[in-house]
Structure formats: C-alpha cells, structure tokens
Amino acid sequence: xxxxxxxxxxxxxxxxxxxxxxxxxxxxxxxxxxxxxxxxxxxxxxxxxxxxxxxxxxxxxxxxxxxxxxxxxxxxxxxxxxxxxxxxxxxxxxxxxxxxxxxxxxxxxxxxxxxxxxxxxxxxxxxxxxxxxxxxxxxxxxxxxxxxxxxxxxxxxxxxxxxxxxxxxxxxxxxxxxxxxxxxxxxxxxxxxxxxx
Length: 197
Description:
By secondary structure, the protein is an alpha/beta fold. The chain is built from six helices and seven strands. It has helices at 21-32, 68-78, 113-122, 143-148, 153-176, 178-185; strands at residues 2-6, 39-41, 44-51, 54-61, 87-93, 101-105, 128-133. Strands 2-3-4-1-5-7-6 form a seven-stranded mixed sheet, sandwiched between helices. The two termini are 29 Å apart.
C-alpha cells in the first residue's frame, strides 16, 4: 500500500493558499479516483482508493503544517508498512518557480517545516516527493506571508493544470515507479499549461 500525503494547513482561512498545494493535489486525486477523503482518523482526513493493482490511502493531515509527521507516522505504523518508499509526500516548494513540478526520491527538507516533521517522525528522509513550485519572494522577510497568501490571479489560471499534472505524476509513481515518473515529468515544463488541460 502507498500512503499519498498532501501537506497543508487545515481550516477555511488557509484554503487556496500556496502552502496548501499538497491538499489541492489530494483533492484532485480524490475526485479522479472517486475516493472521498472524509474519514477522520489518525488526526487526518483519509480516503482509500486503488491505482492499478496497488491500494493507496489519500491523506490530509489535520494538524498544522509543522506537525504533519505525527499523522504520517501513526498511519505508517498502524498499517505496518515496512519501507518509507511507500510514502509519497506532495508539497509546495519555494525553491522551484511557479508553475514548475519536480519529483524526487529522498533528500533534505530545505527549510520546509512539514517535510522536517515527516522526516523526524518517520526517522528517515527516504520517502518520495512531488514538489509543486510556488516561487520565492525577492525579500526573504516576506517568505512566511508569501506561502500563506493565495495564488495570484495569473497563477490561478494555471493552477488547475498544475494540480492535474501533479496528480497524474503521483499515479505514475504508484503504477510505474519513481524512476519512470521522474523520466516523464522532471524534464517537462508547465509553461504551456492552460485552464483546459
């Protein structure tokens, strides 16, 4: 089984913000797989689905971002998963420009408090990541405000296509493995995305 975890902050005040890009991708997968993410368990909202022959669990932690790993660890242990490579974390990334998308196996946290929490609670950085670029503000002092702000009007035009592609990348990881998914998605750009994609 794969745990597909979208990182974000719960609550209406954070809906549609850049920091909630992971939640948006989980919502898209939920829609595509006809798997409501509504069950409250493990301090998270979860939904069960299948991608190809693989069972997956869609997870939206309902702690705040810096505690996201608590839910991930509880689910990982409850279902007795053995490898952290069975965890796919979808998250926003300041180091990538919007609307870039990159897939990665393992690595550091780059200052992302949600990733830091997942690494801490799993005891390993060796999980899979789908990184959704949100760009970095010119002034470091406004970084926190940047991640908690909504996408701009221009970004919002591209956002549905970005989310759709990220969801497809997650499905590709599950069905074909991380290397095949990286080969397909890491070399492409999203500059030609449109609302119709």
